[in-house]
Design brief:
Rossmann fold; 9-stranded mixed beta sheet
Length: 454
């Protein structure tokens, strides 16, 4: 089958990039012919990309060159539309070869130029490739681009929702709500990664709710696999961005409430709140309540109210317990190194304060045989509910987001109080869940079925 995938960004890094890359690779392995329109310029090391190229400056033609990767049953071609110098983004980051600019900072003529260029490229691809399935991503501008490009031929398309576009463009400006509504309304089907994502997007963007379908994103169940267990001390960890919205401070504060003997902790990641988090743990570990309170009051973009309230009433024995727990900050680990470290943990805490569209790291933990602990909100809470169903233990791995510090500590103790046979059984259950529900091959199959259902 010929599958055309429009993705405005790269094939590494962010969740949507990984989603695009892994579904394309899965379709290739099953014998499909996949054409990806994106801005990935460096395909070296992407072993699923058979050829890569660029569109002409007018986006009316494109050429590709073979990459030399070993052949598979199908093929993937990656082609870059010519979008000029500006790459619109939801959250600022550096992109080599582009001037990245936030969607909310784009002038109307800059947005129009970006859209028109992509419409031309996508229309060219439709004409030359004649896809049997067309999939686009993000609430803006992908669905609107697909609407305009597909109109002349009547080609149907489906659209995938992603949280970044919703939070950092659509919710902030009416023009993006209008573009999103027009684009999603034209889609044959709209795919959300969780029930939360569908409901939250439909609350803001009208006109498409009756066409929504939930397909969870995937994780690499071949990369993230269980490791042979040793007699190492019980280990609880956090993996992710070190920013306040991820709730790392609540995870650190929860450790002094745990009761499991010999517990050790690991924090994997990097981010703008990293230095205060190091200082917070030092103050908790040394019993410096006033220093910890000062960090909580400053916060990152405002006070950390739950942490401040907790610390103000913490007993002395809480700080004594925190002093017993060794904690390591590893810094950033990419997927390869992370896949070797993650399976050595017993528990992974995902303490996000703000809503999450899904929560890929919790799915990766499950695939690696690590029990995820998550708040009872948004898409991440849906992962928790799925884990609890697989374990047959309601309320076992989720905690009350309104009382995060006590809730995280109680959940850590619940999981690590299991007997060795019970813990081994729980690990096997979450691995089976991840492989049956969140494998990229399954996600790709479901997505293609949605794109071809008439």
């Amino acid at each position: 089958m010929k599958i055309l995938l429009w993705h405005g960004y790269l094939l590494r890094g962010s969740g949507s990039n990984i989603y695009c890359a892994n579904t394309a690779a899965a379709w290739r392995a099953k014998g499909h012919d996949v054409l990806v329109l994106c801005q990935e310029r460096d395909v070296l090391g992407l072993d699923f990309v058979d050829s890569a190229g660029v569109f002409a400056p007018d986006n009316l033609s494109f050429t590709t060159t073979d990459t030399g990767v070993p052949a598979a049953a199908g093929r993937v071609r990656v082609v870059n539309p010519d979008i000029g110098e500006i790459l619109p983004v939801y959250v600022f980051d550096e992109y080599e070869g582009f001037s990245a600019k936030l969607f909310v900072d784009l002038a109307d003529d800059e947005l129009r130029d970006y859209t028109d260029r992509n419409v031309s490229a996508l229309a060219t691809a439709i004409s030359e490739f004649e896809p049997e399935a067309l999939i686009t991503g993000h609430e803006v501008m992908g669905p609107f681009i697909a609407k305009l490009a597909c109109e002349p031929t009547g080609t149907p398309f489906i659209a995938k929702l992603h949280g970044s576009a919703l939070e950092y463009a659509v919710k902030l400006e009416k023009r993006y709500r209008d573009y999103a509504s027009e684009g999603l309304s034209a889609a044959a089907r709209v795919i959300g990664g969780s029930n939360y994502m569908v409901e939250e997007a439909s609350r803001v963007i009208p006109g498409w709710r009756d066409k929504a379908e939930v397909i969870n994103p995937g994780c690499d169940v071949e990369l993230f696999r269980p490791a042979e267990r040793t007699d190492d001390p019980p280990t609880v960890a956090f993996v992710g961005k070190l920013i306040a919205s991820k709730g790392v401070h609540n995870f650190l504060a929860s450790l002094g409430l745990t009761t499991i003997p010999g517990l050790r902790a690991v924090v994997v990641g990097y981010g703008g709140f990293e230095v205060p988090l190091h200082a917070l743990w030092h103050s908790l570990h040394t019993g410096a309540r006033d220093e910890a309170l000062a960090i909580a009051r400053r916060g990152e973009e405002g006070p950390l109210d739950a942490l401040e309230e907790f610390l103000a009433s913490a007993e002395d024995d809480y700080f004594a317990r925190a002093a017993e727990i060794p904690l390591e900050f590893t810094g950033r680990l990419d997927h390869g190194p992370l896949s070797l470290v993650l399976p050595t943990f017993d528990v992974l805490v995902v303490p996000s304060v703000l809503p999450e569209a899904f929560g890929m790291v919790a799915a990766e933990a499950a695939a690696a045989g690590v029990i995820p602990i998550v708040p009872d909100h948004s898409g991440i809470g849906e992962i928790g509910a799925a884990v609890e169903e697989a374990l047959g233990r309601p309320g076992f791995v989720t905690f009350d987001a309104a009382d995060p510090i006590n809730g995280i500590a109680a959940a850590i103790d619940r999981v690590l109080a299991l007997s060795p046979p019970e813990l081994a059984e729980a690990r096997a259950a979450v691995v089976a869940l991840a492989r049956s529900r969140w494998a990229w091959t399954r996600v790709a199959d479901l997505l293609l079925a949605a794109a071809t259902r008439r």
